[in-house]
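Sequence in, structure out. Go.
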Amino acid sequence: MGETLQKWIEEWKNGRVKDLPDWIPIDEAGDWAEFEKQHPELTRHDAERLERYHQLEESLKGKLAGDIQKENETVLKALNDIRSASIRNRDLKFTSLFHHLNIRMLTYAFHQLRKEAAAGCDKITWQQYAQNLEENVNNLWKRLVNWSYYPQPVRRTYIPKASGGLRPLGICAIEDKIVQYALKLILENIYEAKFKGVSYGFRPGTRAHDALDAVYMAITTKNVNYILDADIVGCFDNINRSILIEILKDKIGDTRIIKLVERLMNVGILDKGELRLLDNGVIQGSTLSPLLANIFLDYVIDTFVIWWRATFAKGEVYFVRYADDYIIGFQYKEDAINLLKVLEDRLLCAGLRLNTKKTRLIEFGKNVRRSKDGETKLETEVFNFLGFTHKCGISHKGRKFKLMRNCISERITKKIQDIDTKLDKIIFRPLKEVIQWVNGVLQGYYAYFAVHDNLQPLSSFRHAIMELLHKKLNRLSQRSKWTWDFFNKHISPQILFPKVKHPYPSQRMAERQKTLSELRYSIRKVIPDH
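Output:
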């Protein structure tokens, strides 16, 4: 008996499916083995029965999909109500939220998780948990309500950092992922109305290129002469949990939600078989951590910098933050020095500190390209932000300032080394598969880095990969050699060329303003008072 057919019978018993076909008898004992013995005709492979069985399965899938869609709509409506209340009154304190962690919300959260994600300490994958989803979610909900739910230790693993070294990541158990995702949906809809426009990391509807665009526009269109490139040491690992809880209590009046967040934060770390408990920090890699870090940094950095700018700044100050990476542009050096001093003290009070080796105050901007004598400077300092090296340049005519954004050279070198290692493992496969893999790597790289003024570094990156591929292919055989003429004629055209994927930030922002204007116009037509 098919798995879908069994599920249909169960749904019929639960009252969700009403129109069960007459030709399917139901044995109340639910003994499927006995049922198949009594009705062997259902397992025959004749065309008529097979076609009928497939029609049955398709009908069930449609009914179940309709039920899931209705439940999802109920969840999304509840989240929309939370967001609307937060937008209407930004000082509102939410005193009743725990009831939103119901079976529907947990089921919805489960379906939003990545199916291919690694398993945690429980060694249960998404697919294994889904086999008995309804019972598992019901059991999880009961433990949440009865306060018998305790998160399992987080399995720690390490991945290489782009700048060198290893980055610790935590892999949570499947049920902890579900609870964290459901809690994230609730808190996210509360705090999105509170977050400042200078924050771009790990927020719905924003991406890294939005932060890059904001930096670009500030430097090219505003009075920015100095850049503070700051780096926080181990931001996620050093967040003060006590302060974070106090920040949450300012908006969350439901003590059950606060206690649940505390339980999720205070879970142990299983590192190489050794269980360790941490006093501070949020676990990198968990579903809830980016949002908690944003809530913490919004209070510690964003709110403070905006307040300081309005109160003490003598010139223009522009601030952009993406997660724990942030850039501040100043018109006057005095403002930069003063803000750096007070910001460092505030971070220390919150349990964070600046990396003195990486934190720099540099002279940068359209007014820096020319010296007091009016001559163009050949070299200026640069800074890195979100994978790009930002440089001061000039237009082709040599008259106007131009902000150049190129790939960070050290990361390109590291990427080429990684590709070299991986090519050694796959070069023995059919050439078509190898080229397909290389194009996949290039396509992913182009999707992020293909901006104006960066095509030359990307072309060099492509050429370096082609040289690696040419060298590997020549090593496969001692008799036949791949000449460059043959390679360029037959292989090179199959390797993707870089093309601009992202327009100039000024164009993209103009399109956004046009979209917003059209939206406001539509609202005024429907609601004249707005």
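Check: DSSP finds 18 helices and eleven strands in the chain. The longest strand covers residues 154-160.
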